[in-house]
Write a structure and sequence with these properties.
Elements (H helix, E strand, L loop, with lengths): L1 E14 L4 E2 L2 E2 L4 E3 L7 H14 L4 H4 L13 H13 L3 E10 L9 H12 L6 E6 L5 H4 L3 E11 L5
Parallel strand pairs: 5-6
Antiparallel strand pairs: 1-4, 1-7, 2-3, 5-7
Helix pairs in contact: 1-3, 3-4
Bound molecules: magnesium ion.
The site of magnesium ion has 5 residues, from strand 1 and helix 1.
C-alpha cells in the first residue's frame, strides 16, 4: 500500500548563522536560526516521511529542548526517519520538496542537496526531487526574514500494517 505524507518547516534568517539547506552550506550574509542546524528542507522531508508512517513529527523524536540536538546536522533526523520506515517494514518510494526562498539562489546546489538527502535516507538520488521558488517579494519570505520548505513523501507499507 502506498502511503503519502506531507511536511512543512520554516526557520528565521538571521545574521551570524550558516545557511544550510539539504545539508549544503550555501554562501549568504544570513543563515537559518534554530536549535539544530535549522535545515528547513531536511526537516520538512523528515516530517513528510514520519507523516506517511502515521508517526509523530520531528519534534516528537527530537525535542528542541534536548541539548543533544543543539547544532546537530539534520541528516541524523533523516537517518532516523529512514530507520522508522524500516521498523514499519516499509520502503521509501520517493520524496519531493520545494524550497521557498527569496534569496539566495538555491537551485545551483540542488544536486548536492539531493545527494545528501538520498544518502541519509539510503535511497537512489533519482527518488529525491528538489525544486525552489522565490515568494515574489511577498510576506516574510519575500522580505527575506525566513526560508520555508514543503515536502511530500511516498512510502510503500505492507497491507494492514
Ligand atoms: Mg525545523
Amino acid at each position: 500500500m502506498i502511503h503519502v505524507g506531507i511536511g512543512y518547516d520554516v526557520h528565521p534568517l538571521v545574521p551570524g548563522r550558516k545557511l544550510i539547506l539539504g545539508g549544503v552550506e550555501i554562501p549568504h550574509m544570513k543563515g537559518l536560526d534554530g536549535h539544530s542546524d535549522a535545515d528547513a528542507l531536511m526537516h520538512a522531508i523528515c516530517d513528510a516521511i514520519l507523516g506517511a508512517l502515521g508517526e509523530g513529527d520531528i519534534g516528537t523524536f527530537f525535542p528542541n529542548t534536548d541539548p543533544r540536538w543543539r547544532g546537530a546536522p539534520s541528516s541524523i533526523f533523516l537517518e532516523e526517519a529512514a530507520r522508522q520506515v524500516t521498523f514499519h517494514s516499509g520502503r521509501i518510494v520517493n520524496v519531493d520538496a520545494s524550497i521557498l526562498a527569496q534569496e539566495p539562489k538555491v537551485m545551483p546546489h540542488a544536486f548536492s542537496m539531493k545527494a545528501n538527502i538520498a544518502k541519509a535516507l539510503g535511497i537512489n538520488i533519482k527518488r529525491v526531487g528538489i525544486k525552489a521558488t522565490t515568494n515574489e517579494g511577498l510576506g516574510f519570505i519575500g522580505r527575506e526574514e525566513g526560508i520555508a520548505a514543503m515536502a511530500v513523501a511516498s512510502v510503500d507499507l505492507p497491507e494492514a500494517s
